[in-house]
Amino acid sequence: MIPISPRHRPSIMEAILFFLCTVGLISYFIIGLETVPHIPILLGTLALIAYGLMKQIPFKDLQAAMIAGANSGMGAIFLFFLIGILISSWMISGTIPALINTGFSVIGSTWFYGIVFAVTAIIGVALGSSLTTSATVGVAFIGMSVAMDAELAITAGAIVSGAFFGDKMSPLSDTTNLASSIVGVDLFEHIKHIGLTTIPAFIISLVLFILLSPDETVSLGKVEQYQTALQSAGLIHWASWLPLVALVICTIFKIPAFISLAVSSILATLSASFTSGIGWLEIWNIWFNGYTGTTDFEPVNELLTKGGINSMLFTISLVILALSFGGLLFVTGILPSMLAAFQEKLQNARSIILSTAATAIGVNVLIGEQYLSILLTGETYKDIYDKAGLTKKSLSRTLEDAGTVINPLVPWSVCGVFIADVLGVSVLAYLPFAFFCLLSPVITILFGAKTAKQK
Protein backbone atom coordinates (compact mmCIF):
# COMPACT_ATOMS: atom_id res chain seq x y z
CA MET A 1 0.00 0.00 0.00
CA ILE A 2 1.29 3.46 -0.71
CA PRO A 3 2.23 5.20 2.57
CA ILE A 4 -0.90 5.90 4.61
CA SER A 5 -0.22 7.27 8.07
CA PRO A 6 -2.48 5.77 10.75
CA ARG A 7 -4.56 8.40 12.54
CA HIS A 8 -5.35 6.13 15.49
CA ARG A 9 -3.39 3.53 17.44
CA PRO A 10 -5.78 0.89 18.82
CA SER A 11 -4.57 -1.73 21.25
CA ILE A 12 -3.68 -5.09 19.76
CA MET A 13 -6.77 -6.71 21.27
CA GLU A 14 -9.05 -3.99 19.92
CA ALA A 15 -7.46 -4.24 16.47
CA ILE A 16 -7.77 -8.02 16.35
CA LEU A 17 -11.35 -7.95 17.63
CA PHE A 18 -12.52 -5.38 15.08
CA PHE A 19 -10.61 -7.09 12.30
CA LEU A 20 -12.18 -10.47 13.10
CA CYS A 21 -15.64 -8.92 13.29
CA THR A 22 -15.16 -7.26 9.91
CA VAL A 23 -13.75 -10.42 8.31
CA GLY A 24 -16.58 -12.39 9.92
CA LEU A 25 -19.12 -10.03 8.34
CA ILE A 26 -17.55 -10.47 4.90
CA SER A 27 -17.30 -14.25 5.38
CA TYR A 28 -20.96 -14.54 6.40
CA PHE A 29 -22.20 -12.71 3.32
CA ILE A 30 -19.92 -14.54 0.86
CA ILE A 31 -20.14 -18.01 2.42
CA GLY A 32 -23.48 -17.98 4.22
CA LEU A 33 -25.59 -15.77 1.97
CA GLU A 34 -23.59 -16.48 -1.22
CA THR A 35 -23.59 -12.84 -2.28
CA VAL A 36 -21.07 -11.35 -4.69
CA PRO A 37 -18.03 -10.12 -2.72
CA HIS A 38 -18.69 -6.47 -3.58
CA ILE A 39 -21.61 -6.15 -1.15
CA PRO A 40 -19.91 -7.36 2.06
CA ILE A 41 -16.73 -5.44 1.23
CA LEU A 42 -18.76 -2.28 0.84
CA LEU A 43 -20.49 -3.01 4.17
CA GLY A 44 -17.09 -3.64 5.74
CA THR A 45 -15.92 -0.31 4.32
CA LEU A 46 -18.90 1.45 5.91
CA ALA A 47 -18.15 -0.28 9.23
CA LEU A 48 -14.55 0.94 9.08
CA ILE A 49 -15.70 4.48 8.30
CA ALA A 50 -18.04 4.36 11.31
CA TYR A 51 -15.17 3.05 13.47
CA GLY A 52 -12.89 5.82 12.24
CA LEU A 53 -15.48 8.51 12.95
CA MET A 54 -15.99 7.09 16.46
CA LYS A 55 -12.24 7.43 17.00
CA GLN A 56 -12.48 11.08 15.86
CA ILE A 57 -10.68 10.60 12.58
CA PRO A 58 -11.89 13.33 10.18
CA PHE A 59 -13.91 12.01 7.25
CA LYS A 60 -11.60 13.78 4.79
CA ASP A 61 -8.72 11.64 6.11
CA LEU A 62 -10.79 8.48 5.78
CA GLN A 63 -11.77 9.45 2.27
CA ALA A 64 -8.17 10.27 1.37
CA ALA A 65 -7.10 6.81 2.61
CA MET A 66 -9.75 5.16 0.46
CA ILE A 67 -8.59 7.11 -2.59
CA ALA A 68 -4.93 6.34 -1.84
CA GLY A 69 -5.75 2.67 -1.46
CA ALA A 70 -7.66 2.54 -4.74
CA ASN A 71 -4.92 4.53 -6.47
CA SER A 72 -2.33 1.88 -5.58
CA GLY A 73 -4.15 -0.56 -7.86
CA MET A 74 -4.51 1.67 -10.90
CA GLY A 75 -1.68 -0.12 -12.70
CA ALA A 76 -3.58 -3.40 -12.43
CA ILE A 77 -6.85 -1.74 -13.43
CA PHE A 78 -5.40 -0.34 -16.67
CA LEU A 79 -4.02 -3.80 -17.46
CA PHE A 80 -7.44 -5.35 -16.81
CA PHE A 81 -8.97 -3.10 -19.47
CA LEU A 82 -6.36 -4.25 -21.97
CA ILE A 83 -6.74 -7.91 -20.98
CA GLY A 84 -10.44 -7.72 -21.83
CA ILE A 85 -9.57 -6.26 -25.24
CA LEU A 86 -6.75 -8.76 -25.77
CA ILE A 87 -8.96 -11.78 -25.10
CA SER A 88 -11.70 -10.58 -27.47
CA SER A 89 -9.19 -9.67 -30.19
CA TRP A 90 -7.39 -13.01 -29.81
CA MET A 91 -10.76 -14.70 -30.24
CA ILE A 92 -11.65 -13.00 -33.53
CA SER A 93 -8.10 -13.37 -34.86
CA GLY A 94 -8.27 -17.12 -34.14
CA THR A 95 -5.30 -17.08 -31.74
CA ILE A 96 -7.12 -18.62 -28.78
CA PRO A 97 -9.12 -21.08 -30.97
CA ALA A 98 -5.83 -22.19 -32.60
CA LEU A 99 -4.22 -22.73 -29.20
CA ILE A 100 -7.21 -24.72 -27.97
CA ASN A 101 -7.29 -26.82 -31.14
CA THR A 102 -3.58 -27.56 -30.75
CA GLY A 103 -4.14 -28.56 -27.15
CA PHE A 104 -6.82 -31.05 -28.16
CA SER A 105 -4.55 -32.53 -30.81
CA VAL A 106 -2.20 -34.04 -28.22
CA ILE A 107 -4.94 -36.33 -26.86
CA GLY A 108 -4.61 -39.89 -28.11
CA SER A 109 -2.56 -41.98 -25.68
CA THR A 110 -3.50 -43.99 -22.62
CA TRP A 111 -2.14 -41.44 -20.12
CA PHE A 112 -5.59 -40.01 -19.62
CA TYR A 113 -5.22 -38.08 -16.34
CA GLY A 114 -1.81 -36.79 -17.36
CA ILE A 115 -3.16 -35.60 -20.71
CA VAL A 116 -6.20 -33.99 -19.06
CA PHE A 117 -3.83 -32.08 -16.78
CA ALA A 118 -1.46 -31.04 -19.59
CA VAL A 119 -4.17 -30.04 -22.09
CA THR A 120 -6.14 -28.14 -19.45
CA ALA A 121 -2.93 -26.34 -18.49
CA ILE A 122 -2.27 -25.34 -22.13
CA ILE A 123 -5.81 -24.09 -22.60
CA GLY A 124 -5.71 -22.40 -19.19
CA VAL A 125 -2.67 -20.41 -20.26
CA ALA A 126 -4.40 -19.52 -23.54
CA LEU A 127 -7.62 -18.39 -21.85
CA GLY A 128 -6.11 -16.91 -18.69
CA SER A 129 -9.18 -17.98 -16.72
CA SER A 130 -9.36 -21.03 -14.48
CA LEU A 131 -13.14 -20.87 -14.17
CA THR A 132 -13.73 -20.60 -17.92
CA THR A 133 -11.33 -23.48 -18.55
CA SER A 134 -13.05 -25.64 -15.92
CA ALA A 135 -16.55 -24.81 -17.14
CA THR A 136 -15.85 -25.59 -20.80
CA VAL A 137 -12.98 -27.98 -21.51
CA GLY A 138 -13.25 -29.37 -17.98
CA VAL A 139 -16.86 -30.40 -18.52
CA ALA A 140 -15.84 -32.17 -21.76
CA PHE A 141 -13.15 -34.13 -19.93
CA ILE A 142 -15.62 -35.11 -17.22
CA GLY A 143 -17.84 -36.50 -19.98
CA MET A 144 -14.92 -38.50 -21.39
CA SER A 145 -14.13 -39.75 -17.88
CA VAL A 146 -17.68 -41.04 -17.50
CA ALA A 147 -17.52 -42.76 -20.90
CA MET A 148 -14.36 -44.68 -20.04
CA ASP A 149 -15.30 -45.38 -16.39
CA ALA A 150 -12.35 -43.37 -15.06
CA GLU A 151 -12.35 -41.91 -11.55
CA LEU A 152 -14.27 -38.63 -11.61
CA ALA A 153 -12.46 -37.29 -8.53
CA ILE A 154 -9.02 -37.79 -10.13
CA THR A 155 -10.22 -36.31 -13.43
CA ALA A 156 -11.61 -33.28 -11.59
CA GLY A 157 -8.33 -32.95 -9.68
CA ALA A 158 -6.42 -32.95 -12.98
CA ILE A 159 -8.78 -30.34 -14.45
CA VAL A 160 -8.49 -28.04 -11.43
CA SER A 161 -4.70 -28.46 -11.32
CA GLY A 162 -4.30 -27.64 -15.01
CA ALA A 163 -6.76 -24.76 -14.95
CA PHE A 164 -5.00 -23.08 -12.03
CA PHE A 165 -1.57 -23.68 -13.55
CA GLY A 166 -2.88 -21.65 -16.47
CA ASP A 167 -4.34 -19.07 -14.11
CA LYS A 168 -0.88 -18.58 -12.58
CA MET A 169 1.24 -18.60 -15.73
CA SER A 170 -0.93 -16.77 -18.26
CA PRO A 171 -0.30 -13.06 -18.96
CA LEU A 172 -4.06 -12.87 -19.59
CA SER A 173 -4.96 -13.92 -16.03
CA ASP A 174 -6.43 -11.22 -13.82
CA THR A 175 -4.98 -12.79 -10.65
CA THR A 176 -1.51 -12.93 -12.21
CA ASN A 177 -1.75 -9.29 -13.23
CA LEU A 178 -3.16 -8.37 -9.83
CA ALA A 179 -0.40 -10.13 -7.87
CA SER A 180 2.34 -8.46 -9.93
CA SER A 181 0.77 -5.00 -10.04
CA ILE A 182 -0.19 -4.76 -6.38
CA VAL A 183 3.40 -5.46 -5.37
CA GLY A 184 4.96 -3.37 -8.16
CA VAL A 185 6.61 -6.12 -10.24
CA ASP A 186 6.61 -6.23 -14.03
CA LEU A 187 4.12 -8.83 -15.26
CA PHE A 188 6.58 -10.89 -17.29
CA GLU A 189 9.26 -10.73 -14.58
CA HIS A 190 6.60 -12.04 -12.19
CA ILE A 191 5.68 -14.93 -14.51
CA LYS A 192 9.35 -15.79 -14.98
CA HIS A 193 9.96 -15.78 -11.22
CA ILE A 194 6.94 -17.91 -10.26
CA GLY A 195 8.30 -20.51 -12.66
CA LEU A 196 10.88 -21.36 -9.99
CA THR A 197 8.16 -22.99 -7.90
CA THR A 198 5.45 -23.55 -10.52
CA ILE A 199 7.49 -25.68 -12.94
CA PRO A 200 8.58 -28.22 -10.26
CA ALA A 201 4.97 -28.43 -9.02
CA PHE A 202 3.82 -28.98 -12.63
CA ILE A 203 6.35 -31.75 -13.30
CA ILE A 204 5.59 -33.61 -10.06
CA SER A 205 1.84 -33.31 -10.68
CA LEU A 206 2.19 -34.55 -14.27
CA VAL A 207 4.13 -37.62 -13.13
CA LEU A 208 1.53 -38.40 -10.46
CA PHE A 209 -1.36 -38.07 -12.92
CA ILE A 210 0.41 -40.31 -15.45
CA LEU A 211 1.03 -42.97 -12.80
CA LEU A 212 -2.64 -42.88 -11.76
CA SER A 213 -3.95 -43.04 -15.33
CA PRO A 214 -6.02 -46.08 -16.43
CA ASP A 215 -4.82 -48.39 -19.17
CA GLU A 216 -7.79 -47.88 -21.50
CA THR A 217 -7.43 -45.69 -24.58
CA VAL A 218 -9.42 -42.49 -24.43
CA SER A 219 -12.40 -42.15 -26.76
CA LEU A 220 -11.72 -39.32 -29.18
CA GLY A 221 -15.32 -38.72 -30.25
CA LYS A 222 -15.91 -35.65 -28.11
CA VAL A 223 -12.48 -34.21 -28.87
CA GLU A 224 -13.20 -34.45 -32.58
CA GLN A 225 -16.51 -32.64 -32.03
CA TYR A 226 -14.64 -29.79 -30.38
CA GLN A 227 -12.02 -29.63 -33.11
CA THR A 228 -14.59 -29.79 -35.91
CA ALA A 229 -16.64 -27.01 -34.33
CA LEU A 230 -13.54 -24.87 -33.72
CA GLN A 231 -12.50 -25.19 -37.35
CA SER A 232 -16.05 -24.54 -38.62
CA ALA A 233 -16.05 -21.19 -36.81
CA GLY A 234 -13.77 -19.90 -39.59
CA LEU A 235 -11.47 -18.11 -37.14
CA ILE A 236 -8.32 -20.25 -37.41
CA HIS A 237 -5.82 -19.12 -40.08
CA TRP A 238 -2.05 -19.10 -40.45
CA ALA A 239 -2.11 -15.49 -39.27
CA SER A 240 -3.77 -16.57 -36.00
CA TRP A 241 -0.33 -17.22 -34.53
CA LEU A 242 1.03 -13.72 -35.22
CA PRO A 243 -0.45 -12.04 -32.09
CA LEU A 244 1.09 -14.78 -29.92
CA VAL A 245 4.44 -14.42 -31.66
CA ALA A 246 4.28 -10.65 -31.11
CA LEU A 247 3.57 -11.15 -27.41
CA VAL A 248 6.47 -13.60 -27.09
CA ILE A 249 8.84 -11.17 -28.83
CA CYS A 250 7.74 -8.35 -26.52
CA THR A 251 8.33 -10.66 -23.56
CA ILE A 252 11.85 -11.55 -24.74
CA PHE A 253 12.75 -7.87 -25.11
CA LYS A 254 11.14 -7.09 -21.72
CA ILE A 255 8.75 -4.52 -23.11
CA PRO A 256 6.33 -3.32 -20.38
CA ALA A 257 3.22 -5.47 -20.09
CA PHE A 258 0.81 -2.63 -20.94
CA ILE A 259 2.57 -1.91 -24.23
CA SER A 260 3.02 -5.62 -25.01
CA LEU A 261 -0.66 -6.37 -24.54
CA ALA A 262 -1.63 -3.31 -26.58
CA VAL A 263 0.66 -4.27 -29.48
CA SER A 264 -0.64 -7.84 -29.52
CA SER A 265 -4.27 -6.67 -29.33
CA ILE A 266 -3.88 -4.23 -32.21
CA LEU A 267 -2.09 -6.83 -34.36
CA ALA A 268 -4.83 -9.38 -33.57
CA THR A 269 -7.52 -6.84 -34.48
CA LEU A 270 -5.85 -5.96 -37.79
CA SER A 271 -5.41 -9.65 -38.57
CA ALA A 272 -9.08 -10.35 -37.83
CA SER A 273 -10.23 -7.52 -40.06
CA PHE A 274 -8.56 -9.24 -43.04
CA THR A 275 -9.13 -12.94 -42.26
CA SER A 276 -12.49 -13.16 -40.49
CA GLY A 277 -14.50 -10.69 -42.52
CA ILE A 278 -15.75 -8.93 -39.38
CA GLY A 279 -16.56 -5.26 -39.98
CA TRP A 280 -14.91 -2.49 -38.00
CA LEU A 281 -18.12 -1.44 -36.27
CA GLU A 282 -18.60 -5.00 -35.01
CA ILE A 283 -14.94 -5.21 -33.99
CA TRP A 284 -15.26 -2.17 -31.73
CA ASN A 285 -18.38 -3.70 -30.19
CA ILE A 286 -16.46 -6.94 -29.61
CA TRP A 287 -13.68 -4.94 -27.93
CA PHE A 288 -16.22 -3.81 -25.35
CA ASN A 289 -18.70 -6.71 -25.07
CA GLY A 290 -16.49 -9.62 -26.12
CA TYR A 291 -16.87 -12.23 -28.84
CA THR A 292 -19.90 -14.54 -29.06
CA GLY A 293 -19.46 -18.02 -30.53
CA THR A 294 -21.86 -18.99 -33.33
CA THR A 295 -20.97 -22.61 -34.15
CA ASP A 296 -23.45 -25.51 -34.20
CA PHE A 297 -21.79 -27.04 -31.10
CA GLU A 298 -22.89 -25.24 -27.94
CA PRO A 299 -19.92 -26.29 -25.72
CA VAL A 300 -17.57 -24.61 -28.21
CA ASN A 301 -19.77 -21.52 -28.26
CA GLU A 302 -19.39 -21.34 -24.49
CA LEU A 303 -15.64 -21.73 -24.93
CA LEU A 304 -15.39 -18.91 -27.46
CA THR A 305 -17.87 -16.49 -25.89
CA LYS A 306 -15.67 -14.30 -23.71
CA GLY A 307 -13.48 -11.22 -23.53
CA GLY A 308 -14.17 -7.52 -23.85
CA ILE A 309 -13.81 -4.59 -21.47
CA ASN A 310 -17.26 -5.32 -20.07
CA SER A 311 -16.11 -8.74 -18.84
CA MET A 312 -13.43 -7.11 -16.67
CA LEU A 313 -15.68 -4.60 -14.91
CA PHE A 314 -16.60 -7.11 -12.19
CA THR A 315 -12.92 -7.57 -11.32
CA ILE A 316 -12.09 -3.87 -11.66
CA SER A 317 -14.89 -2.80 -9.33
CA LEU A 318 -13.90 -5.46 -6.81
CA VAL A 319 -10.26 -4.34 -6.90
CA ILE A 320 -11.25 -0.71 -6.28
CA LEU A 321 -13.50 -1.64 -3.35
CA ALA A 322 -11.00 -4.04 -1.80
CA LEU A 323 -8.09 -1.58 -2.04
CA SER A 324 -10.23 1.19 -0.56
CA PHE A 325 -11.09 -1.22 2.23
CA GLY A 326 -7.37 -1.86 2.73
CA GLY A 327 -6.68 1.88 2.87
CA LEU A 328 -9.17 2.23 5.74
CA LEU A 329 -7.55 -0.67 7.59
CA PHE A 330 -4.32 1.31 7.52
CA VAL A 331 -5.59 4.80 8.36
CA THR A 332 -7.62 3.49 11.32
CA GLY A 333 -4.48 1.83 12.64
CA ILE A 334 -5.98 -1.66 12.70
CA LEU A 335 -3.45 -3.33 10.39
CA PRO A 336 -0.42 -1.33 11.63
CA SER A 337 -1.20 -2.38 15.22
CA MET A 338 -1.55 -6.03 14.24
CA LEU A 339 1.62 -5.96 12.15
CA ALA A 340 3.61 -4.29 14.90
CA ALA A 341 2.60 -7.06 17.30
CA PHE A 342 4.23 -9.87 15.33
CA GLN A 343 6.66 -8.04 13.06
CA GLU A 344 9.51 -8.52 15.52
CA LYS A 345 9.07 -12.29 15.25
CA LEU A 346 9.60 -12.23 11.48
CA GLN A 347 13.37 -12.02 11.40
CA ASN A 348 14.38 -14.30 8.50
CA ALA A 349 13.25 -15.04 4.99
CA ARG A 350 11.75 -18.43 5.79
CA SER A 351 9.56 -17.16 8.63
CA ILE A 352 8.38 -14.20 6.53
CA ILE A 353 7.46 -16.41 3.55
CA LEU A 354 5.77 -18.94 5.84
CA SER A 355 3.76 -16.16 7.47
CA THR A 356 2.83 -14.70 4.06
CA ALA A 357 1.64 -18.08 2.79
CA ALA A 358 -0.31 -18.74 5.99
CA THR A 359 -2.01 -15.34 5.74
CA ALA A 360 -2.96 -15.86 2.07
CA ILE A 361 -4.35 -19.31 2.85
CA GLY A 362 -6.14 -17.98 5.93
CA VAL A 363 -7.91 -15.23 3.97
CA ASN A 364 -9.01 -17.82 1.41
CA VAL A 365 -10.41 -20.05 4.14
CA LEU A 366 -12.05 -17.26 6.14
CA ILE A 367 -13.41 -15.18 3.27
CA GLY A 368 -13.34 -17.57 0.32
CA GLU A 369 -12.16 -14.91 -2.14
CA GLN A 370 -8.85 -15.18 -4.02
CA TYR A 371 -8.77 -11.51 -5.03
CA LEU A 372 -8.94 -10.44 -1.38
CA SER A 373 -6.33 -13.04 -0.48
CA ILE A 374 -3.91 -11.45 -2.96
CA LEU A 375 -4.86 -7.85 -2.21
CA LEU A 376 -4.91 -7.90 1.60
CA THR A 377 -1.87 -10.17 1.98
CA GLY A 378 0.13 -8.21 -0.57
CA GLU A 379 -0.62 -4.87 1.06
CA THR A 380 0.07 -6.26 4.53
CA TYR A 381 3.51 -7.72 3.79
CA LYS A 382 4.92 -5.23 1.29
CA ASP A 383 6.75 -3.16 3.93
CA ILE A 384 7.92 -6.25 5.80
CA TYR A 385 9.64 -7.60 2.67
CA ASP A 386 11.28 -4.22 2.03
CA LYS A 387 12.64 -3.99 5.57
CA ALA A 388 13.93 -7.58 5.45
CA GLY A 389 15.70 -6.98 2.14
CA LEU A 390 13.56 -9.50 0.27
CA THR A 391 12.64 -8.93 -3.34
CA LYS A 392 9.18 -7.87 -4.41
CA LYS A 393 9.18 -10.81 -6.81
CA SER A 394 9.33 -13.23 -3.89
CA LEU A 395 6.22 -11.62 -2.39
CA SER A 396 4.25 -11.68 -5.64
CA ARG A 397 5.27 -15.31 -6.17
CA THR A 398 4.14 -16.33 -2.68
CA LEU A 399 0.82 -14.55 -3.23
CA GLU A 400 0.23 -16.74 -6.29
CA ASP A 401 1.54 -19.96 -4.75
CA ALA A 402 -0.57 -19.67 -1.59
CA GLY A 403 -3.36 -17.34 -2.68
CA THR A 404 -4.53 -18.06 -6.21
CA VAL A 405 -4.32 -21.86 -6.20
CA ILE A 406 -5.80 -22.47 -2.73
CA ASN A 407 -9.22 -20.96 -3.48
CA PRO A 408 -10.58 -24.00 -5.41
CA LEU A 409 -9.70 -26.22 -2.44
CA VAL A 410 -12.05 -24.36 -0.07
CA PRO A 411 -15.59 -25.82 -0.32
CA TRP A 412 -17.30 -22.48 0.43
CA SER A 413 -15.03 -20.32 -1.71
CA VAL A 414 -16.08 -18.64 -4.94
CA CYS A 415 -13.98 -20.99 -7.08
CA GLY A 416 -14.78 -24.08 -5.01
CA VAL A 417 -18.55 -23.62 -5.25
CA PHE A 418 -18.38 -22.81 -8.98
CA ILE A 419 -16.12 -25.72 -9.96
CA ALA A 420 -18.01 -28.28 -7.85
CA ASP A 421 -21.22 -27.17 -9.54
CA VAL A 422 -20.01 -27.27 -13.17
CA LEU A 423 -18.00 -30.51 -12.84
CA GLY A 424 -20.49 -32.32 -10.62
CA VAL A 425 -17.69 -33.37 -8.25
CA SER A 426 -17.51 -32.06 -4.68
CA VAL A 427 -14.48 -30.08 -3.54
CA LEU A 428 -13.65 -32.59 -0.80
CA ALA A 429 -13.74 -35.39 -3.41
CA TYR A 430 -11.24 -33.81 -5.84
CA LEU A 431 -9.15 -32.01 -3.19
CA PRO A 432 -6.72 -34.94 -2.54
CA PHE A 433 -6.04 -35.15 -6.29
CA ALA A 434 -5.56 -31.44 -7.02
CA PHE A 435 -1.83 -32.10 -6.79
CA PHE A 436 -0.64 -28.86 -8.36
CA CYS A 437 -2.73 -26.71 -6.01
CA LEU A 438 -1.52 -28.70 -2.98
CA LEU A 439 2.14 -28.69 -4.01
CA SER A 440 2.49 -25.00 -4.89
CA PRO A 441 2.34 -23.56 -1.32
CA VAL A 442 4.42 -26.44 0.03
CA ILE A 443 7.21 -25.83 -2.48
CA THR A 444 7.20 -22.07 -1.94
CA ILE A 445 7.41 -22.54 1.84
CA LEU A 446 10.21 -25.12 1.62
CA PHE A 447 12.34 -23.52 -1.07
CA GLY A 448 11.08 -19.96 -1.53
CA ALA A 449 13.54 -18.53 0.98
CA LYS A 450 16.50 -19.62 -1.18
CA THR A 451 15.48 -17.24 -3.98
CA ALA A 452 13.84 -14.52 -1.87
CA LYS A 453 16.90 -12.24 -2.05
CA GLN A 454 17.85 -12.89 -5.70
CA LYS A 455 17.69 -9.71 -7.77
Tell me what you see in this structure:
The protein is built from 24 helices and no strands. The chain is an all-alpha fold. Helix 10 packs parallel to helix 20. The two termini are 22 Å apart. The model has no long low-confidence stretch (mean pLDDT 81).
Tell me about the biggest sheet? none
pLDDT < 50 runs, ≥5 residues: none
Count of DSSP H/I helices = 24
Indicate the proportion of strand residues.
under 5%
Total number of domains: 2
Question: What's the layout of helices and strands?
Answer:
Blueprint: H1 12-32, H2 38-54, H3 59-71, H4 74-92, H5 95-105, H6 112-127, H7 130-135, H8 137-147, H9 152-169, H10 174-183, H11 187-212, H12 221-232, H13 242-252, H14 257-275, H15 280-289, H16 298-304, H17 309-331, H18 334-343, H19 349-367, H20 370-388, H21 392-404, H22 414-423, H23 427-430, H24 435-447
Short characterization:
The protein is mainly alpha-helical. It has helices at 12-32, 38-54, 59-71, 74-92, 95-105, 112-127, 130-135, 137-147, 152-169, 174-183, 187-212, 221-232, 242-252, 257-275, 280-289, 298-304, 309-331, 334-343, 349-367, 370-388, 392-404, 414-423, 427-430, 435-447.
